[in-house]
Amino acid sequence: MNVLSLEEPIIFQKIAVRLIFIIFVTVIFLGDSLCFWGNSNSSIVHSQSFYGTDLQIHNKNSYKASVQEVRFKLWQISLARRYGNVYKNKIKDGVIHIKMTKYYNNRPLRINVIEYNPFINPDIKILPIMAGNELAKKDSVINMSQKNNAFAAINGSYFKPQTGVPLGLMMVDKKILTGPIYSRVALGITDNGFKMDRVSLNASLFYANNKLQVNNINQPRTLCTDVLVYTSDWGKISPKTPQYGIQIGIQDGKIIERSEKPISIPKNGFVISAPKNKIDEFLNITTERKFLKKNQDKSIKLEIKTNPDWKDVNHIISGGPFLIKNGEIFVDYKEEKFQAITGKNPRTAIGFTKEGYFIMVTVDGREESSVGAGLIELAKIMKKFDCIYAMNLDGGGSSTMQINGKIVNSPSIKGGIIVSNALALVNTEKLTYAK
Length: 435
Fold this sequence. Notes:
Helix content is about 20%, strand content about 35%. With about 425 residues, the chain is an alpha+beta fold. The chain folds into 3 domains: about 10-85; about 95-200 and about 310-430, no CATH class; about 200-305, no CATH class. The strands form 5 sheets. An 8-stranded antiparallel β-sheet has the order 1-2-3-22-21-23-19-20, covered by helices on one side. A 5-stranded antiparallel β-sheet has the order 4-26-5-24-25, covered by helices on one side. A 5-stranded antiparallel β-sheet has the order 7-6-18-8-9, with no helix packed on it. α1 runs antiparallel to α2 (about 50-85). The longest helix is centred in the first third of the chain and has 34 residues, at about 50-85.
Protein backbone atom coordinates (compact mmCIF):
# COMPACT_ATOMS: atom_id res chain seq x y z
CA MET A 1 0.00 0.00 0.00
CA ASN A 2 1.30 3.48 -0.87
CA VAL A 3 1.32 5.10 2.54
CA LEU A 4 3.55 8.01 3.44
CA SER A 5 5.59 7.16 6.52
CA LEU A 6 5.13 9.98 9.03
CA GLU A 7 5.34 9.83 12.84
CA GLU A 8 2.12 8.98 14.72
CA PRO A 9 1.24 10.83 17.93
CA ILE A 10 2.34 9.15 21.15
CA ILE A 11 -0.05 8.54 24.03
CA PHE A 12 1.23 11.18 26.42
CA GLN A 13 0.85 13.86 23.74
CA LYS A 14 -2.82 12.98 23.34
CA ILE A 15 -3.33 13.19 27.10
CA ALA A 16 -1.43 16.50 27.25
CA VAL A 17 -3.57 17.97 24.45
CA ARG A 18 -6.73 17.12 26.37
CA LEU A 19 -5.43 18.51 29.66
CA ILE A 20 -4.21 21.77 28.14
CA PHE A 21 -7.44 22.14 26.17
CA ILE A 22 -9.38 21.85 29.44
CA ILE A 23 -7.12 24.50 30.99
CA PHE A 24 -7.55 26.71 27.92
CA VAL A 25 -11.35 26.49 28.06
CA THR A 26 -11.24 27.23 31.80
CA VAL A 27 -9.08 30.31 31.19
CA ILE A 28 -11.30 31.61 28.41
CA PHE A 29 -14.74 30.96 29.89
CA LEU A 30 -14.16 30.89 33.66
CA GLY A 31 -10.99 32.90 34.02
CA ASP A 32 -12.87 36.08 34.84
CA SER A 33 -14.09 34.57 38.11
CA LEU A 34 -10.97 32.54 38.99
CA CYS A 35 -7.30 33.33 39.44
CA PHE A 36 -7.10 36.08 36.79
CA TRP A 37 -9.79 38.23 38.47
CA GLY A 38 -10.67 39.91 35.19
CA ASN A 39 -14.16 41.10 36.17
CA SER A 40 -14.58 39.85 39.76
CA ASN A 41 -15.72 42.22 42.52
CA SER A 42 -12.37 41.88 44.26
CA SER A 43 -10.58 43.60 41.38
CA ILE A 44 -13.10 46.24 40.28
CA VAL A 45 -11.93 49.53 41.74
CA HIS A 46 -14.57 52.23 41.44
CA SER A 47 -12.41 55.02 42.75
CA GLN A 48 -10.17 56.86 40.33
CA SER A 49 -7.05 56.30 42.41
CA PHE A 50 -3.82 55.60 40.57
CA TYR A 51 -3.46 52.30 42.44
CA GLY A 52 -6.87 51.04 41.32
CA THR A 53 -6.29 51.89 37.67
CA ASP A 54 -2.88 50.25 37.76
CA LEU A 55 -4.35 47.08 39.30
CA GLN A 56 -6.96 46.79 36.56
CA ILE A 57 -4.32 47.17 33.84
CA HIS A 58 -2.12 44.60 35.56
CA ASN A 59 -4.97 42.09 35.77
CA LYS A 60 -5.90 42.55 32.10
CA ASN A 61 -2.30 42.12 30.98
CA SER A 62 -1.90 39.03 33.15
CA TYR A 63 -5.05 37.54 31.67
CA LYS A 64 -3.91 38.17 28.09
CA ALA A 65 -0.44 36.78 28.80
CA SER A 66 -1.90 33.63 30.33
CA VAL A 67 -4.23 33.02 27.39
CA GLN A 68 -1.34 33.55 24.98
CA GLU A 69 0.81 31.09 26.91
CA VAL A 70 -1.90 28.43 26.71
CA ARG A 71 -2.29 29.03 22.98
CA PHE A 72 1.44 28.68 22.48
CA LYS A 73 1.60 25.39 24.42
CA LEU A 74 -1.33 24.01 22.46
CA TRP A 75 0.44 24.93 19.25
CA GLN A 76 3.68 23.25 20.40
CA ILE A 77 1.84 20.01 21.03
CA SER A 78 0.07 20.36 17.70
CA LEU A 79 3.42 20.81 15.92
CA ALA A 80 4.86 17.73 17.62
CA ARG A 81 1.84 15.67 16.58
CA ARG A 82 2.02 16.79 12.94
CA TYR A 83 5.73 16.74 12.28
CA GLY A 84 7.29 14.58 14.99
CA ASN A 85 10.90 14.91 16.11
CA VAL A 86 12.35 16.78 13.13
CA TYR A 87 14.16 20.06 12.48
CA LYS A 88 12.09 23.01 13.67
CA ASN A 89 13.31 26.58 13.62
CA LYS A 90 11.46 29.64 14.89
CA ILE A 91 11.37 32.39 12.26
CA LYS A 92 9.26 34.86 14.22
CA ASP A 93 6.68 34.62 16.96
CA GLY A 94 3.97 32.39 15.55
CA VAL A 95 6.00 31.33 12.50
CA ILE A 96 8.09 28.16 12.36
CA HIS A 97 10.16 26.42 9.66
CA ILE A 98 10.16 22.62 9.54
CA LYS A 99 12.58 20.60 7.43
CA MET A 100 12.29 16.84 6.98
CA THR A 101 12.97 13.92 4.67
CA LYS A 102 10.26 11.28 4.40
CA TYR A 103 9.93 8.19 2.25
CA TYR A 104 7.26 7.09 -0.17
CA ASN A 105 7.69 3.57 -1.54
CA ASN A 106 11.21 3.67 -0.08
CA ARG A 107 12.10 6.72 -2.14
CA PRO A 108 13.09 9.99 -0.43
CA LEU A 109 11.08 13.22 -0.39
CA ARG A 110 12.71 16.34 1.05
CA ILE A 111 10.01 18.60 2.45
CA ASN A 112 10.14 22.19 3.72
CA VAL A 113 7.23 23.63 5.67
CA ILE A 114 6.39 27.09 6.96
CA GLU A 115 3.58 27.08 9.49
CA TYR A 116 1.97 30.30 10.69
CA ASN A 117 -0.23 30.62 13.76
CA PRO A 118 -2.21 33.89 13.43
CA PHE A 119 -3.41 33.66 17.04
CA ILE A 120 0.16 33.87 18.35
CA ASN A 121 1.13 36.76 16.09
CA PRO A 122 -1.79 38.61 14.47
CA ASP A 123 0.53 41.36 13.19
CA ILE A 124 1.72 39.13 10.34
CA LYS A 125 -0.33 39.10 7.16
CA ILE A 126 -0.43 36.65 4.26
CA LEU A 127 -0.80 38.19 0.83
CA PRO A 128 0.17 37.72 -2.83
CA ILE A 129 3.03 39.86 -4.09
CA MET A 130 3.64 40.64 -7.75
CA ALA A 131 6.77 40.86 -9.88
CA GLY A 132 5.91 44.39 -11.03
CA ASN A 133 3.26 47.05 -11.46
CA GLU A 134 2.22 45.50 -14.77
CA LEU A 135 1.12 41.88 -15.06
CA ALA A 136 3.56 41.01 -17.82
CA LYS A 137 6.55 40.95 -15.47
CA LYS A 138 8.69 38.21 -13.91
CA ASP A 139 11.16 38.21 -11.06
CA SER A 140 12.69 35.86 -8.51
CA VAL A 141 10.91 35.06 -5.24
CA ILE A 142 13.88 36.58 -3.39
CA ASN A 143 13.67 39.90 -5.25
CA MET A 144 9.89 40.16 -4.91
CA SER A 145 10.20 39.47 -1.19
CA GLN A 146 12.86 42.14 -0.71
CA LYS A 147 10.78 44.74 -2.56
CA ASN A 148 7.76 43.97 -0.38
CA ASN A 149 9.50 43.43 3.00
CA ALA A 150 8.39 39.79 3.05
CA PHE A 151 10.44 37.75 5.55
CA ALA A 152 9.11 34.47 4.10
CA ALA A 153 7.50 33.48 0.80
CA ILE A 154 6.81 30.70 -1.68
CA ASN A 155 6.19 30.88 -5.40
CA GLY A 156 2.56 31.46 -6.30
CA SER A 157 0.12 30.85 -9.14
CA TYR A 158 0.61 29.55 -12.65
CA PHE A 159 1.60 32.12 -15.27
CA LYS A 160 2.16 32.49 -18.98
CA PRO A 161 5.89 31.69 -19.39
CA GLN A 162 6.43 34.10 -22.29
CA THR A 163 5.08 37.16 -20.44
CA GLY A 164 4.55 36.44 -16.74
CA VAL A 165 0.80 37.20 -16.75
CA PRO A 166 -0.85 35.09 -14.01
CA LEU A 167 -3.05 32.34 -15.43
CA GLY A 168 -5.94 32.35 -13.02
CA LEU A 169 -7.67 34.49 -10.44
CA MET A 170 -5.51 37.02 -8.61
CA MET A 171 -6.76 39.72 -6.24
CA VAL A 172 -4.65 42.03 -4.05
CA ASP A 173 -6.25 44.43 -1.57
CA LYS A 174 -9.73 43.72 -2.96
CA LYS A 175 -8.65 44.62 -6.50
CA ILE A 176 -9.03 41.83 -9.05
CA LEU A 177 -5.95 41.83 -11.28
CA THR A 178 -6.73 38.74 -13.37
CA GLY A 179 -9.80 36.56 -13.75
CA PRO A 180 -10.10 32.80 -13.21
CA ILE A 181 -9.42 30.05 -15.74
CA TYR A 182 -11.66 26.95 -15.82
CA SER A 183 -13.03 27.97 -12.41
CA ARG A 184 -9.93 26.54 -10.75
CA VAL A 185 -9.47 26.38 -7.00
CA ALA A 186 -8.31 29.51 -5.21
CA LEU A 187 -7.38 30.62 -1.70
CA GLY A 188 -9.26 33.58 -0.25
CA ILE A 189 -7.65 35.49 2.63
CA THR A 190 -9.93 37.43 4.98
CA ASP A 191 -9.21 39.53 8.06
CA ASN A 192 -9.99 36.53 10.25
CA GLY A 193 -9.07 33.42 8.31
CA PHE A 194 -9.08 31.59 5.01
CA LYS A 195 -11.44 30.20 2.38
CA MET A 196 -10.77 27.72 -0.39
CA ASP A 197 -13.08 26.86 -3.27
CA ARG A 198 -13.34 26.69 -7.02
CA VAL A 199 -14.11 30.25 -8.13
CA SER A 200 -15.59 31.66 -11.32
CA LEU A 201 -16.00 35.21 -12.56
CA ASN A 202 -19.27 37.13 -12.33
CA ALA A 203 -18.55 40.33 -14.26
CA SER A 204 -20.74 42.52 -16.47
CA LEU A 205 -20.74 45.78 -18.39
CA PHE A 206 -23.74 48.11 -18.03
CA TYR A 207 -24.85 50.81 -20.44
CA ALA A 208 -28.26 52.46 -20.18
CA ASN A 209 -30.60 49.48 -19.77
CA ASN A 210 -28.24 47.03 -21.46
CA LYS A 211 -25.99 44.42 -19.89
CA LEU A 212 -23.06 42.57 -21.47
CA GLN A 213 -21.45 39.60 -19.77
CA VAL A 214 -17.66 39.77 -19.44
CA ASN A 215 -15.86 36.47 -19.92
CA ASN A 216 -12.58 37.47 -18.30
CA ILE A 217 -10.34 40.23 -16.97
CA ASN A 218 -6.70 40.72 -18.04
CA GLN A 219 -6.31 37.21 -19.42
CA PRO A 220 -4.98 36.01 -22.78
CA ARG A 221 -7.77 35.35 -25.26
CA THR A 222 -8.82 31.73 -25.84
CA LEU A 223 -11.98 32.24 -27.95
CA CYS A 224 -12.64 34.93 -30.55
CA THR A 225 -16.23 35.15 -29.27
CA ASP A 226 -15.24 36.15 -25.72
CA VAL A 227 -15.77 39.61 -24.26
CA LEU A 228 -12.56 40.57 -22.45
CA VAL A 229 -11.70 43.63 -20.38
CA TYR A 230 -8.15 44.96 -19.98
CA THR A 231 -7.20 47.42 -17.26
CA SER A 232 -4.00 49.41 -16.81
CA ASP A 233 -2.68 46.51 -14.70
CA TRP A 234 -2.29 44.62 -17.97
CA GLY A 235 0.04 47.26 -19.39
CA LYS A 236 -0.05 50.30 -21.60
CA ILE A 237 -1.51 48.70 -24.76
CA SER A 238 -4.33 46.18 -25.17
CA PRO A 239 -3.56 42.87 -26.94
CA LYS A 240 -4.44 41.95 -30.51
CA THR A 241 -8.07 42.28 -31.58
CA PRO A 242 -9.86 39.02 -32.47
CA GLN A 243 -11.17 38.37 -35.99
CA TYR A 244 -14.35 40.39 -36.59
CA GLY A 245 -13.60 42.16 -33.32
CA ILE A 246 -13.47 45.73 -32.06
CA GLN A 247 -11.85 47.50 -29.15
CA ILE A 248 -13.47 50.28 -27.16
CA GLY A 249 -11.48 52.54 -24.82
CA ILE A 250 -13.41 53.67 -21.72
CA GLN A 251 -12.25 56.51 -19.47
CA ASP A 252 -14.34 57.79 -16.54
CA GLY A 253 -17.28 55.83 -17.95
CA LYS A 254 -17.06 57.52 -21.37
CA ILE A 255 -16.01 56.07 -24.72
CA ILE A 256 -12.83 57.81 -25.85
CA GLU A 257 -11.63 55.51 -28.63
CA ARG A 258 -12.82 52.78 -30.96
CA SER A 259 -10.49 50.74 -33.15
CA GLU A 260 -9.93 47.37 -34.78
CA LYS A 261 -6.32 47.54 -33.62
CA PRO A 262 -4.80 47.49 -30.09
CA ILE A 263 -5.29 50.79 -28.27
CA SER A 264 -3.90 52.57 -25.21
CA ILE A 265 -5.44 51.51 -21.91
CA PRO A 266 -6.61 54.53 -19.87
CA LYS A 267 -5.23 54.77 -16.33
CA ASN A 268 -8.66 55.44 -14.85
CA GLY A 269 -10.54 53.21 -17.23
CA PHE A 270 -10.30 50.05 -19.31
CA VAL A 271 -10.50 48.60 -22.80
CA ILE A 272 -13.27 46.27 -23.99
CA SER A 273 -12.11 43.74 -26.59
CA ALA A 274 -15.03 41.83 -28.13
CA PRO A 275 -16.77 40.75 -31.32
CA LYS A 276 -18.13 43.79 -33.14
CA ASN A 277 -21.69 42.47 -33.29
CA LYS A 278 -21.80 42.07 -29.48
CA ILE A 279 -20.50 45.62 -28.95
CA ASP A 280 -22.97 47.08 -31.46
CA GLU A 281 -25.89 45.30 -29.80
CA PHE A 282 -24.73 46.38 -26.35
CA LEU A 283 -24.45 50.04 -27.40
CA ASN A 284 -27.53 50.03 -29.66
CA ILE A 285 -25.61 51.37 -32.66
CA THR A 286 -25.49 50.67 -36.38
CA THR A 287 -23.34 53.54 -37.70
CA GLU A 288 -20.39 55.56 -36.45
CA ARG A 289 -22.52 58.74 -36.45
CA LYS A 290 -25.17 57.10 -34.29
CA PHE A 291 -22.46 55.64 -32.07
CA LEU A 292 -21.06 59.07 -31.23
CA LYS A 293 -24.46 60.65 -30.68
CA LYS A 294 -25.80 57.95 -28.40
CA ASN A 295 -22.78 57.99 -26.11
CA GLN A 296 -22.17 61.69 -25.63
CA ASP A 297 -23.73 61.72 -22.13
CA LYS A 298 -23.87 58.03 -21.31
CA SER A 299 -21.70 56.08 -18.84
CA ILE A 300 -20.45 52.54 -19.19
CA LYS A 301 -19.93 50.78 -15.88
CA LEU A 302 -17.95 47.64 -15.12
CA GLU A 303 -19.03 45.43 -12.22
CA ILE A 304 -16.70 42.63 -11.11
CA LYS A 305 -17.67 39.92 -8.63
CA THR A 306 -16.72 36.33 -7.96
CA ASN A 307 -18.85 33.23 -7.64
CA PRO A 308 -18.99 32.38 -4.76
CA ASP A 309 -19.29 36.04 -3.83
CA TRP A 310 -16.32 36.51 -1.48
CA LYS A 311 -17.20 40.00 -0.24
CA ASP A 312 -15.10 39.65 2.92
CA VAL A 313 -11.99 38.43 1.10
CA ASN A 314 -9.03 40.82 0.82
CA HIS A 315 -6.66 38.73 -1.31
CA ILE A 316 -7.06 35.77 -3.67
CA ILE A 317 -4.46 33.52 -5.26
CA SER A 318 -5.38 30.63 -7.53
CA GLY A 319 -3.64 27.39 -8.38
CA GLY A 320 -4.94 23.89 -8.75
CA PRO A 321 -5.95 21.26 -8.44
CA PHE A 322 -7.57 20.76 -5.03
CA LEU A 323 -5.62 18.42 -2.75
CA ILE A 324 -7.77 18.35 0.40
CA LYS A 325 -11.44 19.32 0.67
CA ASN A 326 -13.48 19.08 3.86
CA GLY A 327 -10.64 17.17 5.49
CA GLU A 328 -10.49 14.44 2.82
CA ILE A 329 -8.15 13.83 -0.10
CA PHE A 330 -9.75 15.39 -3.17
CA VAL A 331 -7.61 15.71 -6.31
CA ASP A 332 -9.79 17.06 -9.12
CA TYR A 333 -7.17 17.62 -11.82
CA LYS A 334 -9.49 16.44 -14.62
CA GLU A 335 -12.31 18.76 -13.59
CA GLU A 336 -9.89 21.69 -13.44
CA LYS A 337 -8.51 20.74 -16.88
CA PHE A 338 -4.94 19.94 -15.90
CA GLN A 339 -3.11 17.66 -18.28
CA ALA A 340 0.59 17.03 -17.74
CA ILE A 341 1.20 17.82 -14.06
CA THR A 342 0.39 14.48 -12.46
CA GLY A 343 3.89 12.92 -12.47
CA LYS A 344 6.61 13.15 -9.83
CA ASN A 345 7.82 16.73 -9.75
CA PRO A 346 8.97 19.46 -7.38
CA ARG A 347 5.82 20.78 -5.73
CA THR A 348 4.46 23.81 -3.91
CA ALA A 349 1.26 23.59 -1.87
CA ILE A 350 -0.74 25.57 0.69
CA GLY A 351 -3.43 24.67 3.17
CA PHE A 352 -4.92 25.41 6.56
CA THR A 353 -5.99 23.39 9.60
CA LYS A 354 -9.28 23.41 11.48
CA GLU A 355 -7.56 25.50 14.19
CA GLY A 356 -6.74 28.18 11.59
CA TYR A 357 -3.01 27.50 11.25
CA PHE A 358 -1.68 28.24 7.75
CA ILE A 359 0.76 25.82 6.10
CA MET A 360 3.09 26.43 3.13
CA VAL A 361 4.96 23.45 1.67
CA THR A 362 7.61 22.75 -0.94
CA VAL A 363 8.74 19.27 -1.99
CA ASP A 364 12.06 19.01 -3.82
CA GLY A 365 12.33 16.78 -6.89
CA ARG A 366 14.28 15.68 -9.92
CA GLU A 367 17.26 14.47 -7.87
CA GLU A 368 18.31 11.25 -6.16
CA SER A 369 17.97 12.71 -2.66
CA SER A 370 14.40 13.82 -3.37
CA VAL A 371 12.48 12.31 -6.25
CA GLY A 372 9.48 14.65 -6.21
CA ALA A 373 5.81 13.97 -5.55
CA GLY A 374 2.75 13.18 -7.59
CA LEU A 375 -0.51 14.94 -6.78
CA ILE A 376 -1.90 12.06 -4.73
CA GLU A 377 1.35 11.83 -2.76
CA LEU A 378 1.25 15.59 -2.18
CA ALA A 379 -2.36 15.34 -1.01
CA LYS A 380 -1.37 12.61 1.49
CA ILE A 381 1.39 14.86 2.83
CA MET A 382 -1.05 17.75 3.34
CA LYS A 383 -3.54 15.44 5.04
CA LYS A 384 -0.80 14.16 7.39
CA PHE A 385 -0.17 17.82 8.23
CA ASP A 386 -3.83 18.08 9.36
CA CYS A 387 -4.99 20.37 6.55
CA ILE A 388 -8.75 20.46 6.16
CA TYR A 389 -8.31 22.37 2.88
CA ALA A 390 -5.24 22.34 0.63
CA MET A 391 -4.38 23.11 -2.96
CA ASN A 392 -1.49 22.74 -5.37
CA LEU A 393 0.38 25.79 -6.67
CA ASP A 394 2.78 26.13 -9.59
CA GLY A 395 5.54 23.54 -9.29
CA GLY A 396 8.51 22.20 -11.21
CA GLY A 397 11.28 24.74 -11.61
CA SER A 398 9.05 27.38 -10.00
CA SER A 399 8.95 25.67 -6.58
CA THR A 400 10.83 28.00 -4.25
CA MET A 401 10.71 28.83 -0.55
CA GLN A 402 12.62 31.74 0.94
CA ILE A 403 13.09 32.64 4.59
CA ASN A 404 14.86 35.84 5.66
CA GLY A 405 16.36 36.29 2.20
CA LYS A 406 17.68 32.74 1.77
CA ILE A 407 16.34 29.89 -0.35
CA VAL A 408 15.74 26.98 2.05
CA ASN A 409 14.59 24.34 -0.41
CA SER A 410 16.50 22.97 -3.40
CA PRO A 411 14.92 24.26 -6.61
CA SER A 412 15.63 22.19 -9.71
CA ILE A 413 17.19 25.36 -11.11
CA LYS A 414 19.47 27.00 -8.56
CA GLY A 415 17.72 29.93 -6.89
CA GLY A 416 14.46 29.09 -8.67
CA ILE A 417 13.28 30.43 -11.99
CA ILE A 418 11.84 33.92 -12.31
CA VAL A 419 8.08 33.83 -11.75
CA SER A 420 5.03 36.05 -11.92
CA ASN A 421 4.05 36.25 -8.25
CA ALA A 422 4.56 34.80 -4.79
CA LEU A 423 2.61 34.22 -1.59
CA ALA A 424 4.30 36.04 1.26
CA LEU A 425 4.35 36.57 5.01
CA VAL A 426 4.76 40.27 5.77
CA ASN A 427 4.97 42.31 8.97
CA THR A 428 2.08 44.77 8.83
CA GLU A 429 4.12 47.60 10.31
CA LYS A 430 6.51 47.24 7.35
CA LEU A 431 3.87 46.66 4.69
CA THR A 432 4.85 48.49 1.48
CA TYR A 433 4.40 47.60 -2.14
CA ALA A 434 7.04 47.79 -4.80
CA LYS A 435 6.76 50.85 -6.98
